[in-house]
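Suppose a colleague, Dr. K., hands you the sequence of a protein chain of 373 amino acids and asks what its three-dimensional shape might be. Before reaching for any lab equipment, you can write down a predicted structure in token form. Begin with the sequence itself:
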Amino acid sequence: MSKLSVKISIAAVSVLTALSLSGVTSIANAALTEAQITSILSLLSTFGADATTVANVNASLRGQATSASSGQATSGTTTTTTSSTAVPAVLLTSGNLTVGSTGEVVKALQQYLNASGYAVALSGAGSVGNESTYFGNATKAALAKWQAANGISATGYFGSITISKLNALALAAKASVITTPATPAETSTTISTSTAVSVPETTATTTPAVVTPSCPKEYSLKMTVEYPSHTVSTYTDMILNEFVFSATQPTAITKIKFTNSGTMPDYNFFSEIRLINSATDAILATSTISNGTIQFNLTADPAKADKNLMVSGGRYYIQTTILTPGYEVKKKITLDVNLATDITAVDYNDLSCAVETAKNNTFPIGGPILVIY
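The predicted structure, expressed as tokens, is then:
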């Protein structure tokens, strides 16, 4: 036996001895006060017990099922399948949560993580029995571990993907209890959570509603053109437009379409047209002009800065080479965004959720007027 196991055993014996001397014969029926439970859990933490052990002891002291006793239990001819930790209903209807979020739903998340063996903290705020209403880095780290163990991206961000997984777990927790019939004519199927309910049918299915966060979101997204109108006589690597996006929450732009309202023909746009990050000079996407329209479609890449997308707070420009016009009348280029549907924006932390683009923009959003000679 390892030194750590010996220490934990000693701690457990100390706890049991204390309970016995006080006349308690069953931990589950001990009716311990919250202060007593907290003291016992702190003692285990002091002896180096891991988060799963602490969570199991906490559940035992409160008369709840532990993770060691979850799974499948067989008694006679009845087989029962249960979930080790019930998913709080408030988490299934929650909005997105991240570092800085507050409220009772955060406390419910911490309680669920602690009960599932992914301790937010071993002592103090966030520990078992001391869960808080603040989503901090400790909550993010514990959530990331839970996400990794449940086969989803370990971002530590509580969004629609995590909520969908919790819904799936809640559905799985509604397991069936199948009892061997006394006679062939008496077939009983039971759907059970905490109370078994007999249904005189061979099968029964209960499907809870899957809650999806409301979309689109209103993040006050606004596009502002910041490139001046001017006359141009240099045609190589010519900047056609430069603009910024602003929003109240992290937002990503995955598509943007411009229409040339000027008089320059398509065939004078000699090279491919590039969408570039002004801060890094990285090319995010390329396009060509067709019937006066240029559309950039961006592909998300988590390995790249800003996921290779345009993001709120960023500055971007459009660049290409123009063939020497050779016209007696000067030609113009003006790249406008005509409609709200010409911009596709999403929540940066949940790319499946759209962001409203029409409310804070007046369309068309006119681009700079470039006079070419």
